[in-house]
Amino acid sequence: MAKTDAFQTVTQEEVSIPIKWEKVQDRDYGNDICVLHPQPSDSGKMIELRYLVVRKEKAAYPSTGEDPGRFLRPEKLVPLNETFKTLAEQATAGKKDDVNRAKALYDHVLGRMRYDKSGTGWGRGDAIYACDAKTGNCSDFHAYFIALSRSVGIPARFAIGATIPAEKNEGPIEGYHCWAEFFADGRWVPVDISEAWKNPQLADYYFGHHPANRFELTKGRDLIVDPAPATGPINFLAYPLLEMDGKPVKPETSFAFRRTRV
After folding, report:
1. Which among 61, 146, 202, 241 has most CB atoms closer than 10 A?
2. Which residues of the chain register pLDDT less than 50?
């Protein structure tokens, strides 16, 4: 469930959940999460969430008191290892401050990877897969960047949501989008390397900015919630996670938008 922050104001217009449910927060990031308790009689029911959202462009912004050091810790699919450390040290050689070191890592990922959703293995945000395959989607690009950054002591973190199409005023949104931020000089700096790959002329912009046409749903990875899914901590959360008999099942999910004037 989306939340208001410094760059988006979220008004919950309508929640239609004809199933027993509760709102919880994950342990580490404080995301609001809707937990449903469906029964066989709920088969075929539709859950619908509608939001009114006002977004701002995001640039580097000051830390609000959280400990950046917590974003140096590894995650299940974003480990710390000697390969990442060696690659990051090579890419940042001669760079003196964290902003310039992060820019060197950004350029490294941009030059090494190709946006490609063919085959299997992509889309999980698996930093080792991304490093080896050199292909993937936004989650893979940013998992790799985060792993490299953390390996040389630059805190970095993940968020996920959707991109609102800029060329039309309403219609479907094709899947999720995710991005990253790194911490340097007391500020969090946004980056979007997969969009920079798609739009090379905007590569300088996407180091340090996220445009206003973003809708953030959740922050972080390896989300721990109570009640816990049978499959363990949640890798990341944009689509609903549905389990039947302890096994994940893919629910039918769609996103749509309508641009309004406020």
Report:
1. 146
2. none
202: β partners: none
Buried/exposed 101-124: b ≥16 CB within 10 Å, e otherwise: bbbbbbebbbeebebeeeeeebeb
Quote the CA–CA distance of 125 and 138 in Å, as a whole number.
Answer: 8
Is residue 255 a contact partner of residue 162, using CB atoms and an 8 Å limit? yes
- Which residues lie closer than 8 Å to 114 by C-beta, 6 or more apart? 134, 135, 197
Closest C-alpha to 205, from 106, 93, 125 = 106
The CATH architecture assigned to 58-258 reads: Roll (3.10)
| Residue 90: φ, ψ to 5° | -65, -45
What does the pLDDT read at residue 262? Answer: 58
Could you give the CA distance from residue 34 to residue 31 in angstroms, rounded to a whole number? 10
Q: Are 146 and 189 in contact (CB under 8 A)?
A: no
227, two tokens: 């009640």
pLDDT of residue 207: 98
Minimal CA–CA distance to 207: which of 215, 199, 196?
A: 196
